[in-house]
Amino acid sequence: MIAGGIIFQLDPAGLSPVKSLNGLPLCLSGDRKTLVVDGLGIVDLAGTLSQERLRLPVAGVVLFADLNADGSVLAAYTRGDKHVTWWDLREKDPQPQQIPCDNNRLKNLKWTPEGQSLILAGSDGIVVWDWNKGQPRERKRRLELLFVVGLAVAPDGLTFATGSEDGRVIIWETATLTPQREWTVPTHVQTVQFAPDGRHLLLGYANGVIEVLRLAPAPASAGS
Asked: Which fold has domain 105-217?
């Protein structure tokens, strides 16, 4: 577990500090081997990168960041930018590269679980970029006023969810950006998160309330 910028290991004797992060965590790769802390410090938790610790130079305040599944590519957005910056962390000296944003109102970004697509969501719509042989290519976009703040991708990657300032919660098909289901709640939805089983969606509201939506019933048990 991580608390107060320190990684702890849980053992029969209790919690033992393992590593100091020198920063608060921003995101963790899907394989749990690479961690990003504020200020874009990279911490290699499993010895898979060329350096155990690395701090990427960035000008401005990083609003959000995400690592792909194996921790090889980091994407981040800095306040006021009209682009998303990404780095290939497999390189010995990762250099910043950019993909454009049409406006500076990007609100969130997330990788799909297989790490081959990056979803950008904001006030004016959604754009999906695919990574092919290490290079990004825009695949699909949907432009409309969505006021998205929260963004989460389902464990199977086939759908993703958005939560908006106007109270809308939408489940989208990742391949087509087609809405599949929609709810409206009477408050600002700040965060959304799928449960590991993919059957539940957690909503975090501006008033501090957390609500759980059941998206699918539990599978029938054998013999029932």
From this structure: Methylamine Dehydrogenase; Chain H (2.130.10)
